[in-house]
């Protein structure tokens, strides 16, 4: 019985950890009345493995493939933000985006200020043919 409980605990922990990493090439994550979602599509020819998203020192996080593989052209990754004590989904907030390569070197993209709201999706695309030409633009 203890082995089953231990196994179940480990499974739940791994599931929780991996749920923060996503590669949504199929159905996109949808927001609800307590959340918003940022979708980022890679339309570039740049080699990178993660996208860092920070909000002015409040929260730093990122998105990547669960297996740590390269984010390929055409992949769409999503990050869900929940309205909670340390992250309020009301008002304006500035998001800073950066790409991380295989050596975890950071390439800053752009700062974008959004008017936040629950049950809302924000879509962006990464463009460029080289790391020096990397760009981010909002597509909705």
TrEMBL record:
Keywords on record: Signal
Extent of the signal sequence: 1-27
Protein name as it appears in the record: Lipoprotein
């Amino acid at each position: 019985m203890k082995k089953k409980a231990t196994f179940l605990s480990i499974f739940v922990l791994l599931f929780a950890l991996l749920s923060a990493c996503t590669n949504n090439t199929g159905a996109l994550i949808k927001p609800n009345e307590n959340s918003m979602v940022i979708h980022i599509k890679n339309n570039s020819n740049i080699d990178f493995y993660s996208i860092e998203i920070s909000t002015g020192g409040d929260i730093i996080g990122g998105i990547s493939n669960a297996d740590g593989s390269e984010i390929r052209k055409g992949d769409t990754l999503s990050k869900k933000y929940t309205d909670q004590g340390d992250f309020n989904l009301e008002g304006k907030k500035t998001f800073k985006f950066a790409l991380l390569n295989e050596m975890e070197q950071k390439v800053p993209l752009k700062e974008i200020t959004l008017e936040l709201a629950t049950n809302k999706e924000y879509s962006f695309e990464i463009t460029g043919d080289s790391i020096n030409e990397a760009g981010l633009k909002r597509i909705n």
